[in-house]
Amino acid sequence: MTRIPSLPTELPRALGYHWPAEWEPHAATWLAWPRKAESWPGIFERIPAAYARLVQAIARFEPVHILAAEETAWAQTRELLDSCSNVHVYRIPTDDSWIRDFGPLFLRSLHGTCDAIADFRYNAWGGKYPPWQNDDQATAVITEAVGARRFATSIVLEGGSIEGDGQGTVMTTSRCLLDPRRNPGVTRDQAERWFADYLGATRVLWVDYGELEGDDTDGHIDQLVRFANPQTLLAAVAQDSSDPNHEPLSEMQAQLRTFSDRHGRPYEIVALPIPRRASFEDQRLPASYCNFYLVNGGVIMPTFDEPEDDKARQILAQVFPDREVQPVPCRDLVWGLGAVHCLTQQQPR
Fold first, then answer.
1. Which of 44, 154, 281, 302 is most deeply buried (CB count within 10 A of its CB)?
2. Per the residue annotation, which of 84, 176, 330, 342 is the catalytic one?
3. Across all residues in the chain, what is the average pLDDT?
4. 3-state helix vs strand vs coil in the chain, percent to 5
5. CATH number for 99
6. Strand (E) or helix (H) holding 270
7. Please, what is the angle between helix 47-59 and helix 71-80, to 10°?
8. Contact, 96 vs 128, CB < 8 A?
9. Averaged over 201-227, what is the pLDDT?
10. Are the C-beta atoms of residues 219 and 172 closer than 8 Å to each other?
11. Range of the domain at 344
12. Which residue from 242, 228, 307 is spatially nearest to 273, judged by alpha carbons?
């Protein structure tokens, strides 16, 4: 498929656009129906039902838009989501389901409207999993479907690799953003200019430590540390010192304590324990409760059938006292090496 060329020539920041925070009100959530059996080897037959449970959980709080171009996928959405009245299916082709990474980044203007989209390139995490051409094209088609203004760029960027507070701060990991398989030769200064030009960022926090065993994204921030609000960070921790994740996550925690918010105040850091040993067929899975997703009035929380599920739910309920914590079983979904946040993309209201 030929990539649709960019229409506007101005940059979003110069026109007053910025990337809003996930906790700001949503118009809808976008997802892409699972169609790639290789993403869940050996258990793909269980994935549509597991995915439908995620859709149903989100649809309790806000409308859901699903990309499903194939007849099989279209039929599954009708069969499994028949009781959901606020689900709309778009016949937009995709290669995989990880719309957080290939989908649109909706922008808000100075007037409060969300009528523009930043469209970064996508190459399946540095060329790991071809094909990805439909995924790379999906944002352009979504933009046309919703009638938004599209700011396209040749820069490769995955949505799961960035986290924002909606007030000009973008947080990312150097291991992923500076990966030469994505943008060869890129420097931190160049990446910060991208964030400023396309997302309206005024400062960037670089996380240089932290990784999860089994993660194939080269350290996406949405598995490691998340903004709960402009003053609070939720950070993954491995409490068992024998866990291979313990040392890198401890180093990350130490670095986070050196960060300050846009007013120069240290962040409040809330530890969010990861499951001790979530695995499948002897492979460690990148299970992290940091992969939650904020919806209107709720928190969609991944659970992994592990003892830490209840503790993580209590922590999220304390951090988000005005939101309902909605657990979604993700033991099967995370066999695809991602969970709730990886599978969703918010459209601000």
1. 302
2. 342
3. 95
4. 30, 25, 45
5. 3.75.10.10
6. strand 268-273
7. 60
8. no
9. 97
10. no
11. 13-348
12. 307
Residue 3 lies in a domain: no
Max Cα–Cα distance, the chain, nearest Å: 53
Decide if 75 contacts 98 (C-beta within 8 A): no
Domains in the chain: how many in total? Answer: 1
Q: Is residue 7 domain-resident?
A: no
Residue 2 lies in a domain: no
Question: How far is residue 122's CA from residue 143's CA, in Å, rounded to a whole number?
Answer: 16
Query: What is the distance between the terminal CA atoms of the chain, rounded to a whole angstrom?
Result: 30
pLDDT band at residue 178, thresholds of 50, 70 and 90? Answer: very high
Residue 302 placed within a domain: yes
In this structure, the dihedral spanned by the alpha carbons of residues 90, 92, 97 and 100, taken in order and rounded to 10 degrees, is -80
How would you class 330 by CB atoms within 10 Å of its CB: exposed for 0-12, middle for 13-18, buried for 19 or more? buried
pTM: 0.95
Residues in the chain: 349
3 DSSP assignment = P
Integer angstrom CA distances of residue 341 from 84, 163, 181, 206, 346: 21, 11, 23, 20, 10
For residue range 281-315, list pLDDT tens digits in order: 888 999 999 999 999 999 999 999 999 999 999 99
Q: Which two tokens stand for residue 3?
A: 């990539």
Q: Is 84 a catalytic residue?
A: no
What would the pLDDT profile of 113-139 be if each residue is shown by its tens digit? 888 999 999 999 999 999 999 999 999
Q: How far is CA 59 from CA 63, 80, 111, 239, in A?
A: 6, 13, 28, 34
Residue 18 DSSP symbol: B
Distance CA 212, CA 218 (A): 9
* pLDDT at site 112: 79
